[in-house]
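Chapter review. Work through the record for Leucine-rich repeat-containing N-terminal plant-type domain-containing protein before attempting the end-of-chapter questions.
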Amino acid sequence: PIPKILWNCTQLTILYLWDNQLSGSIPQELSYLVNLELLDLGTNKLTGSISNTFGNLTKLTALYLDGNWFSGHVPREIGTLMDLRYLQFYDNNLSGPLPPELCAGGMLKRLIAFDNNLNGPLPSSLVNCRSLERVRLERNQIEGDISEMGVYPNLVYMDMSSNNLFGQLSYHWGECHNLMTLRISNNNLTGEIPASMGQLSQLGWLDLSSNKLEGELPSALGNLKKLFNLSLGDNLLHGSIPLEIGALS
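Structure tokens for Leucine-rich repeat-containing N-terminal plant-type domain-containing protein:
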């Protein structure tokens, strides 16, 4: 287990315990470390639920809980951490919804939560979070309409594949000028691929396969000079492949 002597170190601002063999649950005494700004418990054998005492660590900017055996829900209190920029809890056994206040502080840059059993809707605070740079939520059971998504000027990487998302791709995706990877395969997206995606000059990987997209391929995709992986299979697309796409090299 995590050594109890740590809870007396109330002036700690950074605590790295990643990649060890720590076991047991996170003790309630964690809330004593009120000055913590970074906590990394990733890649251990920690079990039980994620404690709601994280809500007391109001100075946290980075929280890494990935690669453990945590179960239960992600506590709502994590969403109330106004300075949180980096949040990782991928590769656990977590279920339930994402905290509704996630990114309420408008500071969240990285959310990595793939390979869990998360469900419920996408929080509106996350959908509207313009500070996002990297988001990985693939292989969960998250639901929700993504029609309002796409206004992320700093976004570089987003993967929401293999969930239960629906709705249409907004033309706003064309405003994500730093986006290099967009993967939303194996969901229930409908409508057409917006021509505005041809404005994503940095895009290298676009995977929208295994949805219900229809219409013709927009010729504007031929503007994606850095594109090296385009996956649009298993949809309802029709028409011919635009010459502009065929000219990509």
